Amino acid sequence: MDPLAELKQTFFQECDELLGALEQKLQLLDEGSTDPEDVNAAFRAIHSIKGGAGAFGCTDLVGFAHVFEAALDHLRSGRVALGDAPFALFLRCSDAVSDLVNAARNDEVAPVRPDLLAALEQVGQAKAAPSAAPAAPAADAPPGIAALGNLLALVDSKMGAPAPAVPAKEDDGWDDEPVVAAPVRRLGYDVRIKITPEADLFRRVIEPRVAIGILPAEEIVSVACDLSHVPPLEALDVTDCHMRFEVMLRTALSAEEIVSKFDFTLANEEFEVEVLADAEIETAPAVPAEVPQSVAADLSAILARLGPSADAAPEPDIHPVAAVVPVAAAAVAAAPAAPRAPVRPAANDTVAARQRQAVSVRVDLDRIDRLMNLVGEIVITQSMLVECVRSLPYDVYAKTAEGILTLSRQTRELQDHVMAVRAQPVKAVFQRMPRLVRELAQTLGKEVKLVLEGENTEVDKTIIEELADPLTHMIRNSMDHGVETPEERIAAGKHPEGTIKLIAEHRAGRIVISVTDDGRGIGRDRLLAKAKSRGLVGADEKLAPEEIDQLIFAAGLSTADAVSDISGRGVGMDVVRRNVESLGGRISVDSEPGRGCKFTLALPLTLAVLEGMVIRCGDDRYVIPIASVIETQHLANTPIEHLTFGQEVLRWRGEITPLHRLGAVMGSAGTRDENIIIIAETERGGNVGIAVDEIVGQQQVVVKSLESNYGTVNGASAATILGDGLVALILDVDSMLRLAASGVRQPVPELKLAG
Amino acid sequence: MSLQLSEKHFTSAQPESAARRIVTFRVGDRTFGIDVGMVREIKGWQATTPLPHAAPHVRGVLNLRGVILAVYDLRTAIGLGSTEATATHVIVVVDVEDKTAGLLVDSVSDIVDVPVSAVRPAPDLERDEHGLIEGLVLLDTEIVALLDLAAVIRDGGDNQDKQLRVA
Q1: Closest Cα partner for A718 from A616, A605, A618, A612?
Q2: pTM for the whole thing?
Q3: Which of A166, A550, A665, B79 has a Cα-to-Cα distance from B38 of 20 to 30 A?
Q4: Which domains does chain B have, with CATH numbers?
Q5: In a 3-state reduction of DSSP, which class is residue A617?
Q6: Cβ within 8 Å, pair B49-A726
Q7: Of A85, A91, A177, A77, nearest in space to A123 by CA
């Protein structure tokens, strides 16, 4: 992959995370959060997306994000009160941004949303008027140019000298917080801010005018630009920033507040805030607010003079997040007093900030898989060692055994850690659901609140990926069939707004995910009638209410009267069941008519390692997942009945349970001598007896795919490698039963009944 | 059936300089070859785990450094019955259509460079080998049959009862 494509890939990955954060923060705000940090985080997210999008030339995305950002900025600056903000609109906009990101990712033409754009622009217009902040006289010039012009004019007039270094920054119209020179005399004290940006300022996609523009324009007394650090033209790299600024501020803001204003743009070591005494500074002359029309012309002249390198856009940092990581504001005394030591964030804060940037590393999933494979190898090698050591003479054995014991403990630990690396919070899937619910609610005309719980429950990455489809189906099902329309709900004496709860939790070594709605529940009569009309249930068959509920998982059944976009084709829940079962999980439903419905998914935590019982049949060994085993018992003590066609059944806990001889079903080599019956559970909740020769042991086994190099094997879900390096098949009880039923099996040998 | 190589088998559009590097191996008294690029490694016989109800030429699966791959008995595939595998037998590990597979043979003999023009199309064998042979190469002393590995793995063994008769 060429480097740019790779960077782009990284950008889109980050977009996904940023969009998640954006949506989450907006949701919190919508629910009444008043934490300014939530607003800031949302703003930062959209700002970062915009920054990256600009770098990769996604113009549609930049355009939309820009308007969105501007609207959010009104919140951030307090021009629009949090209580008045249209968060529903913002949430829809975040969906639209997500669409635009996807379109950009797939090189498709993005859908333009003029309706949303217009609504967003309204946010600023309608609310800005009553606020005290002066409107930005952007004039007719493009906003970016105008703002830059403002800055130039400001610097120019206050220094009394031209400021030719600014054009090194090519303007692309990203940020247009205008610097407006309209000094207003107000109470406060004078503050000198020295800005000494690092040379890579532009490459971090920060512009000086943005940094300075964050200060309240009316409080800026003067801005001076120190160009003494600009190297001779031949040594000049226009992507480096050589400017130093000194901003005089007469303000009521405390030093901390000023420091925190630079959070977004400047690193702590790049600026100093110095509080001066009241009287020390003479009021600077007022500066014309109008930008001379000539500025733009001057600018292009300067750009032209700088030659072709001037259009070398500052290399964008592909980690815009890093560039805007909020720096903890240093605790600074704010009382206005005589000249005091420059306020500078403590050094260890900077270190802490750096450390925070380094807490996570992006790693290719393939590498983790390879690591996992290696750990699996070590587990196998170690069990091989254990077998070798047994044959050593005693004195050597004792010493070696001790070492091996330590090794096995460390291996188990290593395995746990690698598994933990693969583990990811289910949040990755959960955070897609609010959007789904929002969109469906709009389509269906229902009011639904989605409650997420246990988003931080961690599951193996492979499972996370497979969860999205089943969950989407389940939520759609609840939205469409479960939750009623507001009118129906009111008539039923419920709150007009329905609630769907999506909960993830760990339970007994599995992850359990439930989708609960407070809707009408499963319409059993209709479901049963439908099932009968399709011949899934005999016309005279009597089913328990719970059994009827389970019919929802049968193929081709839907109780919806009309087939809609959302559901109703009856391909939903049986697909969900199949997906879940292919992951080694189970799904069940509990319904209470009129009160709601609860779907529960139980999945293994990982697909990579499972606890298995190693058994032997003839010469062959197999592994049965412990999760399927209910009980083991001696064959000799079990009463067995023979039915026709060689079918055997046994009585177990008062029930008739079919018995299969594993060796016969799987065609094991060697002579068989069945001694043990394993009672196993099938996916449908039934039980089956499996006769085997011997239980060899119980151990963790590493699951290895048979499909990748061979194909599906009837009766087995996968394979594993045992301590002696040989392969053993991992039995899939249901698949084994199908194999047994297909009749492709060897004749059942005469039954040996002991005693 | 006797194998008559007619004149047209010798003509080829390929330039003389293009050469194929072939690994040759023996099953019984027959010599087979595959392109060296397909061979990942060659290892001694190792016990396999049989798969339930697999085709006869599928010997089972084995563990090659943590990867599970199926081993195919070439002798069974060409209809000469099952190999009594011993320590002297060899598994040629090959890459076929993005899968890795093992080919059980008697021994690996040589690596030879063969001009592309010397590869003749497989004669139209009526009943044998079911298109398992992609082409033939005449070396000094023997005929090397170039295997179509994908076909060997896919449907070798269908003709288990048929005897190979190439004069």
Answers
A1: A612
A2: 0.49
A3: B79
A4: 20-153 (2.40.50.180)
A5: strand
A6: yes
A7: A85
